[in-house]
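Q: Can I see a sequence and its folded structure?
A: Here is a first one.
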Amino acid sequence: MKSLHGETNCGGDSKQKFLRTDALRIGEESIQAVLPEEAVIRALKQKKFSNVGDIVVIAIGKAAWNMAKATKDALGDRITKGIVITKYDHSKGPIEGIEVVEAGHPVPDENSMKGAEKAISLVSDLTKKDQVIFLISGGGSAIFEKPMEGVTLEEIIHITNQLLASGGDIVEINTIRKRLSAVKGGRFAALCGKAKIYSIVLSDVLGDRLDSIASGPAYPDSSTTKEALGIIKKYNIQIEEPIRRIIEIETPKVVENCETVITGSVRALCEAAASSAKRLGYQPVILSSTLDCEAKDAGKFMASMAREIKDPNNTSSYINPPCAIIVGGETVVRLTGSGKGGRNQELALSAAIGMEGLEDVVLFSLGSDGTDGPTDAAGGIVDGRTVEKMKALGISPEEYLNNNDSYNALKVADGLIITGSSGTNVNDVVVLLCASSLDSDTQLQQN
C-alpha cells in the first residue's frame, strides 16, 4: 500500500496543515494495523494440517492476493495447487504454484465466472484425505461468481446494479446475490465434496456475519426465501418471473465440512485509529464500529459532533479538544444523480457542508481497501474551509452532493485521499480531529 496522500495546502495556515498531517497519519497507521498477513499466519498456526492428501488454496476477495501470499510463505511446498481471484489491479505479481485471476467489482464480469470455474475445477476431485484452505475477504460476492442454472451473468449484473443503487445494506444485497449463485450461500462448500475446508475470513460485514461476508460461500445461510422476496419488494427490484422462482429455491442451512475463523474486523480498525490518535496527543473516543446508514446522514452527524465540541458556550460536554472522534462501519449511497464518487467521499462532502467555517477541525472518511466506489480515491478529507474553497471556484457543494458527485467536488478542494490498493478490506473508518488554537500552537512547537 502506498502512503496515504491528501493535499495539505491550507492557504498558509500551519495549524490546519498540521491537523491534516495528523489525520492522514492516523489513517495510514490504522490500515497498517489490519493488514492480513500476520492475521493469516496466526490463523494457520491454530490449525494442524494432515500430512496426507493435497492442500488446495482458494482465495477470493480484495485481500485475496495478500492472504494467499502469506499462506504460501507459511506452508511452502505443502500447498499442492491454488488460485487467487481478486479485483482488478489488486494482484502484486505471481505466487509460485497459485494461479492469479483478476475480476470485476462491485459488479461481476466474465472473469468472475472464469475464476470461479477454475476454483471449482481445483476442488472437484478432492477426497476426504484432502484439505482446502479457503481465504475469504470482502468483495468476494462480485469477484467469485457462477450463476445458478437458469440465470445469466447479464441478469446478475442487472439485479446487482439495482441493489447497489437502492441504498440497501450489504446484508440485504448479499441475501439476493447468494440466491442467484451456485457458489454462494454455502454452495461452494458442497462443491468441495468430502474434503475438509479451513476458512480464514477477513470481515467487511458489520457484526461479522459469516453468511454475508462474500455472500457466505462455505457457511450455512441464515436468511430465508421470505426475507429475500421482502428485500426485492422493499427496494422495488425489477426481476423476471423465472428469476423469482430461482430466488425461491432455499439455500443450504447446514454445512458440515468447513471450520471457520475470523482474522480481522472493523473493530480492530477503529481500535488502531484510537491508538494512533492517542500517541499523537488526542483523546480518542470510539462512538461506534457498526455505522450503518446513508453516507449523507453520517456526514451530517459527524459535523454536528464537530460543532458541539467546538462550541465555546458548551461547558457540559464530556469530550473536549484535543480529541479524536472515531466511527467505523459501512454507509450506503442512495443514487439520485449521475455524478462520480463513493460512500466515503459522499460522507466527507456532507460533513464539510456541516463544518463550514469551523476552525481547527479535520475529518476523513476512508475505505480500508484503498478504493471508494468506482474511483481511484480511498476516501475524502475535509475541514472547516473546504466549502469556502469550493464556492471560490464556483462550485455549489450542495448541488454536487445531490448529484452524487463528491469526487469532483473534493478534487477541486484538495480533499481526495489516494492510497492505491491496501491489501486488506475491513469496512471504513471515519475520524474527526478537533483541537483548540492553544492545542495546535503547543503541538506545532513540539513537532
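Q: Show me another, different protein.
A: A second, unrelated one:
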Amino acid sequence: MLNLPKNVWILTACLALFMSLSVFMLFVGGIIGSDLAPLKSLSTLPVATIVVGTAFSVIPAIRLMSIFGRKKVFLSSCIYTILLIGLCIFSIINKSFYLFCFASFCLGGSVAVMQQFRFAAIESVEFEQRPKATAVVLLGGLVSAFLGTEIATLGKDYFDADFVGSFVILSFLFIIAFILMCFFKPAEKFKQQIDNSKRSLMDIVKQGSFIVAVCAATTGYVVMSFVMTATPVSMHIMDGFSLDDTKSVLQAHVIAMFLPSLFTAFIVKYLGLTRMMILGVIFFFASIIIAFSSHALSNYWWSLAFLGLGWNLLFIGGTNLLPRSYNENEKFKVQSINDFLVFGLQAFAALSAGWFVFNFSWEVVLLSVIPLLFFQLFILLWWLYKK
C-alpha cells in the first residue's frame, strides 16, 4: 500500500477530515436539536436536513466537477464548509433552531463532495491498483470515527453555549483539508459522458439487478440511519448516559461501517455478492434483537456495531451489483437515480427517527424496521434462486 501515489494519501487524509463532519453532526445534531427545537419530536431534524442536503447536492456536485474539475470543487468546498460552520455557531449562540437546520442542510453539499473522493482516488492509479486505492481511502472513515466524536466532547464546554467550541475546532480541520488539497494533482480533466443509450429508463429499472441493487443500498441506509439517528437521543437524553458513553457507541458503529471494506473482496470471493448481502440482513436482525433486549450500555454498543456491519455488507453489495444493470454510456443516469433514492429515503428515516423515539419509544423504533428487513431478505432470496 505504501507504493500508492501521493494523491491517494492526500485524499485519504481529506476524507477523514470531511467525514468527521458527518460523524460530528450525527453525534451532536440530535443533542443540539433537543436544546433548540420548539418540540422534542423535532430534535433530530438537523440530522435529517444534512442527509436531505446531501441528496439534493450529489448531482450538482458531479456537474460542477465536470465543468471546473475535481480540485477546484474540493478546495471551494473547504471554504464553503468553514463559512457554514460559522453559521452553525451563530445559530447556536442565538438559539435559532431553524437557522441551525438550514446550516445543516447546506452542509449536505460538503458531504456530497466528500463522496467523490473515492472516485478521485481511483482515477489517480492504474487499473490494477484501484482496489488497493479504494481500501486505503476507506481508512479515512475509520479515523473519522474517533476524530468527529472526540472534537465534539473536547470543545463542548469551551464557551458559554454548548458545542460552540466543538464547531470552532471542526473549522480548523477544514483549514487543514484546504492546505492538503493544494498538493492534490488531479488526473485528466473529468469529462461528462454523453448518454447515447437507446434503452428507456423504464427498461433499465425493470431489471432484476437494478431492483436488487437499489433495494439493498436503500435498505442499508434507511435502517442504519433510522436506528443510528435515534440512538444518541435514546441514550443521552432519555436514558441519561453520558456523552462519553454515547460517543463510544457511535465510534464502534462507524468503525463497524468501514472496517469490513478492507476485507470485502475476500467475503465476495467466498460468499458471492448475494449471500454477502443476506449476511448483512442477518447482522441487522442481530442488531435489533440485542438493542430490544435491554437498555444497558453493552447492548447499545453491540447493537450499533452490528448495525454498522449490516450497512457495510448491504451497501457495498448493492454498489457492486448496480453496474451490472447499465451500460457505460448509461451510468450517470442510473447512478443519479440510485443516489437520489438512497439519500432521499435515508433523509426521511433520519427525520422520522426523532418523532418515533419521543412519541413512542426506543423499542418501537426497533420494531418498525423489521418488516423492511423481511422484505429485503425476500428480495435477496428471490434473486439468489433466480440466478
